[in-house]
Amino acid sequence: MEIYVPNDELEEVSKILAEEKVAYEVTDRKFALMVEGNKIADVTEVKAQLLETDVPLIYDQGPGIDQRAFRLPSGKKFLVTDVQGNFIRVVTPPPGWER
């Protein structure tokens, strides 16, 4: 899958993926992320081997905001993107969140 990571967060995301032993590749493909005609960030495409799962309910933004979640191999963290693959954040739910 492709994830579009803001350049200012690329080092941190790469570090997390490496620590989690995820097979990933930072590509040479770079894009400008635009919202309503305004550039809000420069992003780099990262290809990663992750399986999609349900977004943990405590991080669900509600109707109108569609997110995707990918559980990292440790099972303790999730990588969250929007439906287009734009990186939002890496989250670590608190103990007992599954109840």
Characterise this structure.
With 99 residues, the chain is mostly beta strands. Helices cover 10% and strands 45% of the residues. It contains one helix and seven strands, in the order E-H-E-E-E-E-E-E. A hairpin with a 2-residue loop joins strand 2 and strand 3. The termini are far apart.
Which key phrases capture this entry?
single chain, 99 residues, mainly beta, four-stranded antiparallel sheet, three-stranded antiparallel sheet, 45% strand
Helix tally? 1
Principal-axis shape equals globular
**Fraction of residues in helix:** 10-25%
Secondary-structure element pattern, one letter each: EHEEEEEE
Sequence-ordered SSE layout with sheet pairings:
Layout: E1 2-6, H1 10-19, E2 24-35, E3 38-48, E4 52-53, E5 67-71, E6 78-82, E7 87-91
Antiparallel strand pairs: 1-3, 2-3, 4-5, 5-6, 6-7
Write a brief structural summary.
This protein is mainly β and 99 residues long. The protein has one helix at 10-19, and strands at 2-6, 24-35, 38-48, 52-53, 67-71, 78-82, 87-91.
